[in-house]
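Aim 2 progress update. The chain analyzed this quarter is reproduced below.
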Amino acid sequence: MLVGFQSYPFEKLNQLFLSIPKPQNTLNLTIGEPQFQTPQIILDKFTQNAHLLNKYPKSSGEEFLQSSQRNFVQKRFGVELNKSQLISTFGTREVLFNFPQFFLFGKSHPVIAYPNPFYQIYEGAAIASNAKSLLMELNAHNGFKPHLEKQELEQVDLVILNSPNNPTGVALNINELSEWVKLALEYNFVILSDECYSEIYAKDAPDSILQASLKAGNPTFKNILSLNSISKRSSAPGLRSGFIAGDEQILKNYAKYRTYIGCAIPLPLQEAANIAWSDFENPAATRAIYAKNLQIAQEIFPQAYVAPYSFYLWLRVGDDLGFSKELFAQKSIMVLPGSFLGRNGAGEGYVRIALVYENSIIRQALQAIKSFI
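Predicted structure tokens:
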């Protein structure tokens, strides 16, 4: 029996608020779920293909979807991939959980490193893999950027990077990513780069580990894997469409492993996802809303550092638990305590605020939070 799994942050939040009578008209700013309509072209494609539910989908996904994802990578990052360098996945959360189990299986003393605070699936994957965790603390002193010491580099098998980062919003530039690629080659560990927020940015598009691999002189992407998803960019988290791309030698065996785990994507979803990956117009319009929200956050909290990536405000408030509880009780606004996202004190004193609504709603909410402070 696996032990050590902690309750998810949202379950902890429910417990924190248990003694508070639920206010009316609560505004939930805890979850990174876009509060915008999924583009109509995606909805139409989905409904037009609902009849395909009578067919089993392939574990590997349809070639038309993989092709649109490779085209996305080429258009967005300028990286050409062949068919063996990308696998369509059922979103990215399932990959973040099962890839470490696949990759670390059979290692006598597996070691995995990931940022701290973090997306909790990283920790769950480490536990399920019976792996030792190296927590790369993100704080104001290191610019919220991950780091491993030499002795840690010598023992680690798998490093999860998350750029742009959840919850801090900080992104690694291509030179920093290239240094990680060089370390992966020198110390022979694999990088799994979670890039699910790569399409949410204010001005300059963030770089991918795939671009950095080319810059570092690693054109075969040895030891390098990138993850991405349409959940944020297309306001379509329910489509569960993502991909893993990079080292084809690793992906060859991972594809075989995936035939056993039952994560095939239903055909109507693949048809809709195909349209979503090819659509750049609607994501650009939504991105502009998020960019404005980040600008509003900086205006209202001029002393805070608001990263120009993702759609989170990582706000220092002092007592994050007490602040979140009282804010909910007095203002009917829900934010996520930073301590729920970290271990060993990481994240304490911060709250994560998801700026996922229209500009007017976010402005009003942040003004209410500012007045509460």
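The chain has 13 helices and twelve strands. The radius of gyration is 20 Å. These observations will guide the mutagenesis experiments scheduled for the next reporting period.
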